[in-house]
Design brief:
There is one protein chain. By secondary structure, the protein is an alpha+beta fold. It folds into three domains: about 325 residues, Beta-galactosidase, Chain A, domain 5; about 210 residues, Aldolase class I (TIM Barrel, Alpha-Beta Barrel), CATH 3.20.20.70; about 110 residues, Golgi alpha-mannosidase II (Immunoglobulin-like, Sandwich). It is about 20% helix and about 30% strand. The chain has a nine-stranded antiparallel β-sheet. A nine-stranded parallel β-sheet has the order 29-28-27-26-23-22-21-31-30. Helix 10 runs parallel beside helix 11. The two termini are about 35 Å apart. About 55% of the residues are buried. Bound molecules: alpha-D-galactopyranose (GLA). Alpha-D-galactopyranose binds next to loops.
């Protein structure tokens, strides 16, 4: 049970979740809001000793002469910069005279059931007010009149605290927020390490774990999107923490634009964790009466290793985030159709006949939807032109879009379409008419990337025009899926419409209007399946999941590269959110050749689909598709809604990869085993599933004859959960069926 209480005498706030406690209080006549504790659940409420108010020389009562010692070491709930705390802070406020400084004092608070939404922003939600409790603490800066409201929500059954911050200029002069982060957590350093998800195009979200040294360790994006390079996530954990043991603090930012996530280890060996909109390039002007909302950041505490953190994020995102923008969206909890996308099949070189031939063949194999990717509009014959001109190219699609969609529907397939609404090609009618709609610094030639510019979505009229063009396309035929792409980052940050002292608002205003467009899309077309995408996985973040339930994971569809990408992604994001397809070999990005079966097993850990020319692949490969389709249907519920366990990591052991999904009832599990490199003269490998009921008996079966000890007759095993979890399952690496690199197997564990 989760609760929030306020102890009036002690002036302490205590937030309890089933397995964690978070405590802070109002201290001193200046009414500082100081943090006391976050970690495993504790029974006592009054732990004021944790503020170290007797710690000479670090408290003002003891040492007002050197007050800076206090300001630079206390654990603040919402630290401000400029008045003596030299660590990076949450808030940097500049007044109209150009001075930066701010000191916040407690004013009042409110505790209530439920969780309000954040105007215009994605955020976790509860469908029933009884499922969450929220605390709002109001603080003020007396000199400027800035009001800062800290929001904290605990969810009934989850070890989660969601935080966001509101600002209001209640003073008489204009103010500028130069940094307005969403979260601070000050705590003692316990020789912590940090996990972040890093990478690049085609190798997004590789896990990096490293010791936290002195100074500031930051991952951040200034690219106008959360980015391929880093993800708005970090975990702080003890050195000895494993998948199943030890403490972890996970932080995730529900936002898709520029962000910062950092830890700073300081002179007193304390740690400050920060998360929020990246202050670099950000300034928000607040005239008297104006407000600003910093996006939501969520914290998860696990006292039992990474597994519990991952499960908590997955449950939170599945139950309280995905499709929150429109709860009537059809795909909030539903299985997704198996799609075939023509990008790697044809690139720009297709017409209606080609697409129809793919659809016909796909229908025979049980595939459920055809997605027409880039190249269907205006004179788009390469990535050099036509973005912005969202009308159908009737030379390619003879007779128009509806005719094609109807024909595809006739084959029994749904139809989906690719769009890239935020972009414009210099060679487009849109740009020729409205060159000032592109983001650029006046007088400075803007940088081209993929030969395109970014539209200035901070301008309502731009967003409006593009939305209405896309709306017209989507209304013109029975379109049931949209892939919303975004293929370059933002730079040359200039808007022709914003005043000079509001140029620093461009990137956030851009995001707000993108969110608004996606919300409109889901309101207008609640039956559409929305898959976000950004040159692969450049905008794979919780913010996007509020609008569409899945995101294209990476342009790298190589099954073996995907192991690392999907492993890192799944630390935070549910498998149901990860766009994953079987593609052709040699793989278009890596040139690697992996068995068709293995490609299917890897894609099964995501949304599942195909990205190949089904009319051209080998007969042998094509013949495997119906069984893969069946496999998807058989295991999708498990993959979509189950608990995910990382059993072994190829990135760590250089040999094999294994993961597992277990349903909530603990009656059904699936282990996927991928042997990456063949290893001669090797003994059977033992893998230990987790999350089973120790007392229950399970039948273990495999799609290959590889279970048991080498030389056995490989009968299905029937064993108790405790045996399976402790003694493990033997995989016969020398079996004929496992010979070669990149071989894989599915092991099913079903209660008997
Ligand atoms: C991006 C996407 C691809 C494809 C192309 C089309 O790179 O990630 O899947 O849609 O754009 O241009």
């Amino acid at each position: 049970m989760s609760t929030i209480k306020y102890l009036a005498n002690e002036k302490i706030f205590k937030l309890d979740t089933p397995g964690s406690s978070y405590v802070f209080g109002i201290i001193d006549e200046e009414k500082f809001l100081l943090h006391m504790y976050y970690g495993g659940r504790i029974s006592d409420d009054d732990i004021r000793y944790r503020t170290r108010t007797n710690d000479y020389p670090f408290t003002p009562e003891k040492n007002n002469r050197d007050r800076g010692a206090f300001l630079d070491s206390a654990y603040f709930e919402y630290p401000t910069e400029g008045v003596g705390d030299f660590r990076a802070g949450c808030l940097r406020l500049r007044d109209n005279d150009g001075h930066a400084g701010c000191q916040l004092s407690y004013v009042n608070h409110k505790i209530y059931k439920g969780k309000p939404g954040l105007e215009g922003l994605p955020a976790t939600y509860v469908a029933d007010a009884n499922d969450a409790t929220t605390l709002k603490v109001r603080l003020e800066d007396k000199l400027t009149g800035l009001i800062v409201t800290l929001n904290y929500t605990v969810f009934e059954d989850l070890d989660v605290i969601a935080r966001s911050v509101g600002f209001e200029n209640a003073g008489r002069d204009t103010l500028y927020l130069e940094s307005a982060l969403s979260l601070c957590l000050d705590m003692e350093n316990e020789d912590f390490e940090i996990i972040t998800l890093n990478g690049s195009w085609a190798r997004e979200r590789h896990t990096d774990r490293t010791r936290i040294g002195y100074g500031r360790h930051e991952v951040s994006s200034t690219r106008g999107e959360s980015s391929h390079q880093v993800n708005p996530f970090m975990a702080v954990l003890n050195r000895e923490t494993t998948q199943t043991l030890g403490a972890v603090y996970g932080f995730s930012f529900v936002y898709s634009g520029n962000f910062t996530a950092s830890v700073e280890r300081n002179q007193h060996d304390s740690l400050r964790c920060l998360m929020g909109i990246n202050p670099k390039g950000f300034t928000w002007k607040l005239t008297p009466g104006e407000t600003f909302t910093a996006p939501e950041a969520v914290m998860v505490y696990s006292g039992s290793g990474l597994d519990h953190m991952t499960h908590t994020f997955h449950d939170l995102f599945r139950d309280h985030l995905i499709c929150g923008a429109n709860l009537s969206s059809r795909y909030k909890d539903a299985p997704r159709p198996i799609l075939i996308n023509n990008w790697e099949a044809t690139y720009f070189d297709f017409d209606d006949e080609k697409l129809l031939s793919i659809a016909k063949e796909a229908a025979k194999c049980g595939i459920e939807m055809l997605v027409m990717d880039d190249g269907w509009f205006a004179n788009r014959s390469s990535d050099n032109m036509a973005l912005g001109d969202w009308y159908v190219n009737e030379d390619k699609l003879k007779g128009g879009l509806k005719k094609l969609v109807d024909a595809v529907n006739n084959e029994g397939l749904k139809f989906g379409i690719w769009v890239e609404p935020e972009m414009v090609s210099p060679d487009s009618d849109l740009y020729r008419k409205h060159s000032d709609w592109a983001i650029a610094i006046p007088g400075r030639p803007a940088t081209l990337m993929r030969n395109q510019y970014v539209l200035d979505m901070s301008r309502d009229e731009v967003a409006e025009e593009i939305y209405s063009r896309i709306h017209a396309v989507l209304s013109s035929a029975n379109i049931e899926y949209v892939k919303w792409d975004m293929n370059r980052t933002l730079c040359d940050l200039g808007s022709y419409a914003l005043d000079s002292d509001r140029q620093g608002e461009l990137c956030h205003r851009y995001m707000l209007n993108v969110y608004k467009m996606q919300k409109r899309l889901m309101d207008d077309f609640p039956n559409i399946l929305l898959e976000n995408c950004s040159g692969g996985g450049g905008r794979f973040d919780p913010g996007m999941l509020y609008y569409g339930p899945q995101i294209w994971c990476s342009d790298d569809t190589d099954a073996i590269e995907r192991l690392r990408i999907q492993e890192g992604t799944a630390i935070v994001y549910p498998l149901s959110t990860m766009g994953a397809h079987v593609s052709d070999c040699p793989n278009h990005v890596t040139g690697r050749i992996a068995p068709f079966e293995t490609r299917g097993h890897v894609a099964l850990a995501g949304t599942f689909g195909y990205e190949l020319d089904i009319t051209k692949i080998s007969e042998n490969d094509r013949a495997l598709i119906p069984a893969q389709v069946e496999m998807y249907h058989k295991y999708n519920e498990l993959v979509r809604a189950g608990d995910y366990y990382r059993l072994a990591s190829y990135a760590d052991n250089g040999f094999y990869d294994a993961w597992e999904v277990v349903n909530k009832e603990e009656s059904h599990a699936l282990v996927t085993y991928i042997k990456v490199m063949a290893r001669p003269y090797t003994r059977s490998n033992v893998i230990k599933p987790r999350g089973l009921d120790p007392k229950r008996r399970y039948m273990v079966s495999c799609d290959k004859n590889i279970l048991g000890l080498a030389g056995d007759s490989y009968k299905p095993l029937i064993l108790h959960g405790d045996t399976l979890m402790n003694a493990g399952i033997m995989i016969n690496e020398n079996a004929e069926e496992m010979k070669g690199d990149f071989r894989s197997a599915l092991i099913e564990i079903s209660a008997v």
